[in-house]
Amino acid sequence: MKIITAPAYRVIRTVSELEQFVDRMSSEKILAVDLEADSMFHFQEKVCLLQIAGNGENVVIDPLAVSDLSPLAPLFSDKEICKVFHGSDYDVRSLYRDFSIEINNLFDTQLASMYVGERETSLGAMVSKRFGIKLDKRYQKKDWSQRPLPEGMIEYAASDVFHLIPLARQLMEELASKERLEWVREECDYLSTVRPVENGCDPLFLRFRGAGRLPRRNLAVLEGLLQYRRDLAIKKDRPLFKVFSNTALLKIATEMADTPKAMESARCLSAKQIRIYGKPLARVVQRANSLPAKDLPVYPRRRRQSVSPKVPERIKAIKAWRDRLAECLELDPALLFNKTLMTAIAVHKPSDIDGLKQVEGIRRWQVEAFGKDILKALSTQP
């Protein structure tokens, strides 16, 4: 297998170079895009490199050197230029968060590969299978915020966009032949609208898996621990998971470990962590433990919507139809209709196509391709 590590590329470090590049690319029909960020190394993650390829050019833009990336905004918003990403969810959020860049006409090759029936959909797997090329992944988890960047890391970044346009063209042809291209285009349109999650003033435990199962006193402890971890992470400029793991904080909150010795006995933290942070963490637990009952947090519960007892049977009927269809099309069933959408359809119980279009979350392609079949599956239920 051929190993490609260093396609020809050019690094852009000034606004004038960026403006000249954008001017050259403004008449293109398709561009490949990727980025590298530093989420593994800093509290406030940021985009550290932006790679774009098109019309024989392969550039690596350094946002830490280029003072203004706004010249890129028209390129990304242009509906006539297809922007090819692979696994674009994180990239779309990051570009909007750091540069207010919005994307029109996005095409995600990872999503497309799923809809042609590929099982291994990483970029490395796709490039290996389709082009016989092994991508060099040595630098995947390095700190992209370091400067100067080693030449090998820049080469690695440039190689990730090098194959995206030929890969996209292959996938577009295959999707068109299977009459699924519009499915993927619509899904990509939705994907281009994802945005970073803002926590605002909400309790931190709302985004912590397992918090909903804790009693109120333990929940107060967990919130205190999460706030302590966040403040420490900001001070140290480290990602949250590199300060304390979620597992460790949940263990402390569950055990109500209010002394370093209790943390050691419950094996909440390493000996080094207990030696350095045991006392301040214990004080967090003690403060939460002394709160009056009226001040304890309450985990918000969604009141379950009252639904017909026939809904489970409708879901079962839709699922049976969907699974047969997925097997026939050789696709992951969830790509066709996920559990949330099947439940919404069963609850809504549309009697015609217009009613089906009103179901929250349903796509136009799902209605056009399978609307009549869904209604037929529903009609078998009383």
Automatic annotation (TrEMBL):
SUPFAM superfamilies: HRDC-like, Ribonuclease H-like. GO terms for molecular function: 3'-5' exonuclease activity; nucleic acid binding; nucleotide binding. GO terms for biological process: nucleobase-containing compound metabolic process. Residues 215-295, 308-382 form the HRDC domain. It comes from the Bacteria. InterPro entries: 3'-5'_exonuclease_dom, HRDC-like_sf, HRDC_dom, HRDC_dom_sf, RNase_D-like, RNaseH-like_sf, RNaseH_sf. This is Ribonuclease D. It comes from Desulfosarcina alkanivorans.
